[in-house]
Specification:
Layout (H helix, E strand, L loop, with lengths): L2 H10 L5 E3 L8 E2 L9 E5 L5 H6 L4 E4 L10 E4 L3 H12 L8 E2 L4 E2 L4 E2 L4 E2 L4 E2 L4 E2 L4 E2 L4 E2 L4 E2 L4 E2 L4 E2 L4 E2 L4 E2 L4 E4 L4 E4 L2 E4 L6 E3 L4 E2 L4 E3 L6 E3 L4 E2 L4 E2 L4 E2 L4 E2 L4 E2 L4 E2 L4 E2 L4 E2 L4 E2 L4 E2 L4 E2 L8 E3 L4 E2 H12 L1 H21 L3
Parallel strand pairs: 2-3, 3-4, 4-5, 6-9, 7-10, 8-11, 9-12, 10-13, 11-14, 12-15, 13-16, 14-17, 15-18, 16-19, 17-22, 18-23, 19-24, 22-25, 23-26, 24-27, 25-28, 26-29, 27-30, 28-31, 29-32, 30-33, 31-34, 32-35, 33-36, 35-37
Antiparallel strand pairs: 1-5, 20-21, 37-38
Length: 347
């Protein structure tokens, strides 16, 4: 398509965009600056990549006004190039459309309620009392337990398990292998024997949530486990029972949350971070990779290390830790000098 079609789409989405160059250039796909060829549209959002801009073969580059002067080709000037790139990528690569209907191999309870244009694929199992909203897709091999509720325009990927009574909002995507509403880790010990505690809560997931492949969200022990609107969760994340995840929070892969952790709004959790149970994290907090959060964090900020502390303090400690052997040798040398001085002292 011509660039003009993309520009019109962005303006219809309420995005301010200025074209520097020609809007009749042909565009066929997005690409990185390094690998772009003629017909590709790329983006620059980091001044550290200005050197890539000089050699790129992209026909169009999405850029902030502060970097537009470096573009030799047609440039789309916007306030947030990375966001606009995401919108353009969506426009050029729309989600596949699925025909409404129920596959012959699917097992759908007669008491289930399906909205308009619902698509149920092969080997799906839908139990009694399930409610599915309009335009939702349930892909092959997925299981929906009794009384599950799923909203409109959702996409449940192949081999997802959603256990009984869980509630999923609108425009939410759950990727393959995810288990929503499995039993939480609830056990009582009596004379050396572990006695299972029934997990009687459910999982409640909001609107516009994305849950990655093979992620698990445990049902609540008594109260519900809650994932608020606009949260994004990567692959292989473990969310324990009664966890509450605030609106707009992002979690990277292999992070783990013990039971009853409360995460505030608009937090970011980097990969392999771990959280002890029964703690709370303030809104707008950022947790760095591999951090171990063992206590509540009541002030927003950036935290790192184990146990997690303010990132600046952790960085200073890390530098000092790398010098421990050198410091130990210096102390030993000083001790030897002090011992020698005492031995030679006239007193």
């Amino acid at each position: 398509m011509q660039l003009k079609a993309i520009v019109d789409y962005l303006k219809e989405a309420g995005i301010a965009v200025e074209v520097r160059g020609t809007d009749t250039v042909e565009i066929n796909q997005v690409a990185s600056l390094v690998n772009a060829t003629k017909g590709n549209i790329s983006f620059l959002s980091d001044k550290k990549r200005l050197h890539e801009l000089k050699s790129t073969q992209a026909s169009v580059v999405i850029s902030h006004a502060s970097h537009a002067e470096y573009c030799q080709q047609t440039c789309l000037i916007v306030d947030n190039p990375y966001y606009v790139y995401a919108k353009v990528a969506q426009f050029l690569n729309p989600e596949p459309e699925f025909k409404p209907g129920i596959h012959d191999s699917a097992i759908v309870s007669s008491t289930a309620s399906l909205g308009k244009n619902v698509s149920i694929h092969a080997n799906v199992v839908i139990e009694d009392g399930v409610k599915i909203g309009d335009d939702t897709v349930i892909m092959a091999g997925s299981y929906l337990g009794k009384d599950v509720t799923i909203g409109m325009h959702c996409r449940i990927a192949p081999n997802v398990v959603i256990m009984h009574a869980c509630k999923i909002g609108n425009y939410t995507a759950i990727e393959s292998g995810a288990v929503i509403g499995g039993d939480g880790f609830g056990w009582a010990n009596y004379r050396g024997q572990w006695v299972k505690i029934p997990q009687i809560g459910k999982v409640v997931i909001g609107d516009h949530v994305s849950i990655g492949n093979n992620t698990t969200v445990d049902r609540g022990a008594i109260e519900d486990t809650v994932i608020a609107d606009n949260s994004i969760i990567d692959n292989l994340v473990q969310i324990g029972h009664n966890v509450q995840l605030g609106e707009g929070t992002a979690i990277a892969g292999q992070a783990g949350f013990a039971g009853s952790t409360i995460i505030g709004k608009h937090c970011t959790i980097a990969g392999q971070a771990g959280f002890a149970g029964h703690i709370s994290i303030a809104d707008g907090t950022h947790i760095m990779a591999k951090a171990g959060v063992t206590h509540s964090l009541n002030e927003p900020g950036v935290y790192a290390g184990f146990p997690a502390i303010a990132a600046g303090e952790w960085q200073k400690n890390s530098v000092r830790a790398r010098q421990l052997d050198k410091i130990a040798k210096k102390i030993k040398s000083l001790e030897d000098e002090l011992k020698l001085l005492k031995e030679n002292s006239p007193n």
